[in-house]
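Task: complex structure prediction.
Instruction: return structure tokens for all chains below.
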Amino acid sequence: EAGVAQSPRYKIIEKRQSVAFWCNPISGHATLYWYQQILGQGPKLLIQFQNNGVVDDSQLPKDRFSAERLKGVDSTLKIQPAKLEDSAVYLCASRSKTGTSGRDEQFFGPGTRLTVL
Amino acid sequence: AQSVSQHNHHVILSEAASLELGCNYSYGGTVNLFWYVQYPGQHLQLLLKYFSGDPLVKGIKGFEAEFIKSKFSFNLRKPSVQWSDTAEYFCAVNANTGGFKTIFGAGTRLFVKA
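Output:
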């Protein structure tokens, strides 16, 4: 079974530039998550999708971050414009069950390491 | 607000030493508890999880964790660590706070000396 794919693996941009990250979850997984992991901290949820609908985006800085999952499969996370404090690893994860019990594990991709100069 | 605390940010052990990593959470309702591990150069992956039943759960590679409800804790243990256990360990708590949300601790970096 193929895992969660993310690209690019690394990205270096200057502040005020735009950047986009792509994620392809495990086939058949209905739930997709984007996390931000700042150095020395645990992953922080940015947005959760169930199929192509947003379940939770309460911690997404909507003035600069956006995400979509148009066909309920792969997803794109965009930052526009980037700030220095956006330097982090952006993790994508997926979960197979469509239920909301929260008992099922999440499968993580390798992440995209973003450096904003 | 819900939070997860991991008390040790860095731990250094020699091979064969015993390991215990602390995890405490702040939520009074029903929780689902996880430990994830990230080996050097690899993805985050599930080590073990607990949601009901026997509070002592066993995971992969000889790890176990004990849920103590009265202490809001879910500590990770291993009787004898190996060099290959060098990794970063994350405790995560999933609770229904207006939808099930998973909160991760800050992580503990474990280095095992050969």
